[in-house]
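Q: How would the structure tokens look for this protein?
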Amino acid sequence: MSELIGSTISQIRSLISGKQVSAKEVTKTYLEHVKRNDKETNALICLTEELALQQADTIDKKIAAGEDLPLAGVPVVVKDNMCVPGYPTTAGSKILSNFIPPYQGTAPTKVFDSGAICIGKGNQDEFAMGSSNENSGFGVVRNPWNLKKVPGGSSGGPAVAVAAGFSVVGLGSDTGGSIRLPASFCGIVGMKPTYGLVSRFGLVAYASSLDQIGPFGLCVEDVALTLSTLVGKDPRDSTSIEDPFGKFNTKNFPKLDLKFAQDLSKKEQSLKGIRIGVLKELVGDGLESEVKAATENSIKTFRDLGATVEEVSVELIDIALPVYYIIATAEASANLARFDGVRYGVRDMDAKDIVSMFTASRKAGFGDEVKRRIMLGTYALSTGYYDAYYKKAQQVRRLLKEAFDRAFEKFDVLVSPTSPTVAFDLGEKTDDPLTMYLSDIATIPVNLAGLPGISVPCGYGREGLPIGLQLVGQQLSDAHLLTVAHAFEKANSFTSRRSPLLETACVR
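A: Here is the predicted structure in token form.
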């Protein structure tokens, strides 16, 4: 059954519908692959074997009864900041190591209802704070292309799960690049949808105005199919968009639904008439030479496909990084105040009073990066500094969004490298937080403006490590963005190349 490992959604569905394999056989094959190989990558915090086998039995019965499920029998790994009842939801933190949620998040519910099978909970940077997945309370995650390299963060676990063949798709969350950066480093496709397109109910919050759930896949089509099952208004999330492709879709972008996703492979590959803007501030100094070369080759590909390509400058994009780290840490300091050992999570049992219990529980439960960001955010919100930092950052955020709007008056899609570098060594940047933060320089502006962004493989750099290209669209242009990304993907063969760990598993 090793040929199942590394399959796409359409391949899994075809095998199951053709009675060549059952959902349970698929599930057992992927579970065995995880058990055999995850000791090398540490991609999963928790294996959900009992749940997976139960879901597989249910799906096989539904298929036998004639039901057509869009993700029937497709293994998925869910980032461990999304609630799945009966299993720990730790958000990568020791402070939640004993927390088992009594309810399920909306995003996991939607993919499970669509037939996906939960293989496990993906490792991550603690509370989604990090760019390398070295901040987890449950050990670092290793890149399947080179086990000495980082996989990117914070959604490194589900990204590695897809790249290593532990699952077909993954669910991650993206606050400042936490889906797109791991996708780039791991040589797969990862998408952050328009803010509000996917419900955040059941997601452990980091920065609520920036967080967004999105999918990983081996190809653009898999990302589109998974995302089409996730979209929609959720009454339990006030930030989810009511009728996103109806009255709010003033520019009449294509509706991102299951039919669109299923028809994606039939779409014409030509991009004639599409206007591509290359983000000038993100393709200059600071790029590794291989990343720059891959980006230039990608621009040529777009031109060959018929698109018009020009450079564009987006005002204030060069100061998005400090703006983000003021807003995100401020929101984090408020969101993480609830983790105090009172209602749930780890509690210091030796404390003599409630104040010392708060202090001791948080000191023991939180890692260094989380403490750093809480302190930064608390400072930015404190009396005498609120107007100078947080308020000013929000004002600049609005100006940045308006700058993007002006760019989209001339261009349909904006492009840049997903990261200035390929995956770096484990431990290379852990002692220099500011250098680490620069890994997200290209992705952060997209979150600040609430725009959809996708990373697709576009080449290989030093040591054969993957390089990602970021495509950015207007709000609610997610389907259009996927169409452009799919055309680019089909014009080259980068997504057909697999990580060494996955190739070895397929041969076995």
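Residues 387-408 form the longest helix (22 residues).

Residues 252 and 321 are 32 Å apart (CA to CA).

Upvote if useful.
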